[in-house]
Specification:
The complex is a heterodimer of chains A (171) and B (263).
Chain A: H1 3-28, H2 31-47, H3 55-82, H4 93-101, H5 104-110, H6 115-126, H7 131-138, H8 142-170
Chain B: H1 5-21, H2 28-36, H3 48-75, H4 107-125, E1 128-129, E2 141-144, E3 151-152, E4 156-163, E5 166-175, E6 178-187, E7 199-201, E8 207-211, E9 220-225, E10 229-239, E11 242-247, E12 251-254
Parallel strand pairs in B: 1-2
Antiparallel strand pairs in B: 2-4, 3-4, 4-5, 5-6, 7-10, 8-9, 10-11, 11-12
Classes of the chains: A mainly alpha (171), B alpha+beta (263).
Chain lengths: 171, 263
């Protein structure tokens, strides 16, 4: 990275490395992997000639790379799960305890979303991205994005209602 | 669209709490910048040596195309193959082609290609990943073979792999979302494994179109009968949802016609 590249990349790193880290960590549930993803995403953004230099476009581009790396991570993990030589990675006990302290039902309901739905939900409500930004990052149309988010919210509501009914019956 | 305000409120509260639990390292920015300053983290195309190599490759590519034009002019009056509807209407033009010269991938690109191509290849071949082992008798599995033979073409590329008893080539396309798996072919000998610098055999029923440019809208310049031997000089290029290869002295042919079971 020469001086000219450093001059435009440094403000981008300052502006987006933390939110990108939080998004990656929320999607992969592993802060070590999230840091690798963020570093790799910035590296890919730096080496690609097509990376936009303007902040709003750069943000979309970076998040698109982050999502791509998150999907690669999930695919690799799925592949390793098929090979019985490696043990399943355990959940970080500290994080698991924190999760239990929060809205455990919502955390459980989120697990029922498809990967695409989860990405849309986290971009929209975790990152507070506008629908048009979510659509651009996921490379889908604005209307598809709204339908995806709406469907995911419906799924969450149904899942939470089912849980409440189950609790009531068990009393 | 705000059909679930109660759920939205609860979800936002949950995600805000989750965000609170995620603490990025205090020196995250410094770590990222350090990584970007490591050797090899250079934008594609910068550096005098790279630019000289690119220029040399472009000259060679143009020379190859000129040779192709000369060959096509020589064969233009008589369409090749049995198809009566095929005519040599135009010739490949170096100036009209936005095709970039094939080049080896960077380490990062190669890693991304392998990560994107391996799951699809394993699924298509019906075998598992070798992991830390190697393919052998009673242990058929897939492994990437190293970056030496990998190539990045125009919005496409390929890398070398291996399974027990044969070599494999994994073909991919590339867009802003990264690399995407397209096809894998394994064989014990060349002939149905298109890649730069090798002979290949046309594998179709009837004849396979050769086009002036990659793409289904490009003019057809010839139609090569099944079994024709061709020499691949450039590619792959991804257009119209298909991979294309430049054949020496001919033009562009779609990938499917150069592998077993071609259309």
């Amino acid at each position: 990275m020469d001086g000219r590249e450093q001059a435009w990349m440094e403000p981008m790193v300052a502006a987006f490395s933390r939110p990108a880290f939080q998004l990656a960590a929320a999607l992969v549930k592993d802060q070590g992997v999230a840091e690798e993803i963020v570093q790799e995403a910035f590296l890919r953004a730096l080496v690609s000639r097509r990376t936009p230099r303007e902040m709003p476009e750069f943000r979309r581009w970076l998040y698109r790379i982050v999502l791509n790396l998150v999907r690669e991570h999930h695919r690799r993990r799925a592949r390793w799960r098929r090979v019985p030589l490696r043990p399943e990675p355990k959940l970080d006990p500290e994080r698991e305890a924190e999760r239990r302290l929060g809205d455990a039902e919502m955390a459980e309901a989120l697990r029922y979303l498809s990967p695409r739905e989860r990405e849309a939900i986290y971009l929209r409500f975790f990152q507070d991205a506008a629908y048009e930004d979510v659509a651009a990052i996921m490379r889908i149309t604005d209307s598809t994005c709204r339908v995806l988010v709406h469907r995911a919210l419906d799924k969450l509501r149904r899942q939470l209602i089912t849980k409440t009914d189950q609790k009531r019956e068990s009393r | 669209m705000n059909a679930s305000p109660d759920i939205e409120t609860r979800l936002r509260a949950h995600l805000a709490a989750e965000r609170e639990t995620i603490k990025p390292p205090a020196d995250l920015e410094a770590r990222v910048l350090r990584r970007l300053k490591e050797p090899g983290a250079t934008p594609a195309g910068s550096g005098l040596v790279r630019q000289l190599l690119l220029a040399a490759a472009l000259v060679l590519f143009a020379a190859g195309l000129a040779f192709g034009v000369a060959r096509l002019r020589a064969i233009a009056p008589a369409p090749i193959g049995p198809s009566p509807s095929v005519h040599a209407t135009t010739t490949p033009s170096a100036t009209a082609s936005p095709i970039s010269s094939p080049r080896p991938p960077t380490a990062t690109e190669y890693a991304a290609m392998v990560a994107a191509g391996t799951p699809g290849a394993e699924r298509q071949l019906g075998i598992a990943d070798c992991g830390s082992s190697s393919p052998g008798p009673g242990h058929d599995c897939f492994m990437a073979f190293g970056a030496t033979d990998a190539i990045v073409g125009t919005e496409a590329g390929y890398f070398h792999g291996s399974r027990f008893g044969s070599g494999c080539w994994v073909y991919l396309d590339h867009d802003a979302g990264g690399w995407h798996y397209v096809d894998v072919r394994c064989a014990q000998a060349p002939g149905s494994l298109p890649r730069i610098g090798t002979d290949d055999t046309v594998n179709v029923s009837g004849c396979a179109n050769v086009r002036a440019q990659p793409g289904l809208q490009a003019p057809i310049v010839a139609c090569l009968p099944n079994g024709s031997t061709v020499h691949v000089v450039s590619g792959p290029t991804f257009r119209d949802g298909k991979l294309w290869w430049l054949l020496q002295g001919q033009g562009w042919m779609v990938h499917d016609s150069l592998v077993d079971g071609g259309a």
